[in-house]
Amino acid sequence: MLTLYSYPALFGVADNNGYGLKVYALLKLAGIGFVHEHLFDASAAPRGQLPYIVDDDKTIGDSDTIIAHLFAKYRPELDRGLTQAERDTDHLVGRLLDDLYWVMSYSRWKDERYWPLFAAALRREHPHLTETGLVKAKEYNAQRYHFQGIGRYAPDAAYARGLADLAVLASLVPASGFVHSAKAGSVDAAIYGFIANIHFYDIDTPLKQFVSAHPRLVRHCTEIHAAIT
Description:
The chain is an alpha+beta fold. It has two domains: 3-74, Glutaredoxin; 84-228. The protein has helices spanning 18-30, 63-74, 84-109, 115-125, 131-148, 155-172, 186-199, 206-212, 215-228; strands at 3-6, 35-38, 52-55, 58-61. A four-stranded mixed sheet has the order 2-1-3-4, covered by helices on one side. α1 (18-30) packs parallel to α2 (63-74) and α7 (186-199) packs across α9. The longest helix has 26 residues, at 84-109. The two termini are 20 Å apart. The relative contact order is 0.15.
């Protein structure tokens, strides 16, 4: 049996991190059976990062590597028949989501306007988390942001970067159906992983305000959410 290890749920989504949630959504959309285990400490994970899967005797980390494994082994119908141009679009969207990730994470762990609300939500939904553990995670993330670069941005400049990413997604997602057809594909699972962690996030950040103001993003997110929950 395949087991997905990812971060805990928050605000009604199965993983409060976009990468784990995109793998979760793809597994659900593809109809691949799995067990879902939640972790907060990623130190024992491959490369010290979540998500990862254990599939029979294989341990695989990195969301894109996981998804490539799932397609190679289980051959789901998702993405069958896509043109090379459509696959190129999917690749570009993946890189855009990599950029958006940092701004989303910054809004939770770095921006002091929202950090207390985020920490309170984590403690409320996961009472085993301690104040000491959360502060340690906050400090660790601050170090990551500094070396990645986003931590050197003022909040308005950081959000401008994320809002530009969201504007591209708002143009890409259609008024009905999904990115390439009437059925959701892997790119839709990836977009959902990140947009759901903004749309269902119960803290009014600039990212959430943008998504709430764009019905196509909300519709795309809520349709996939309904299909996989």
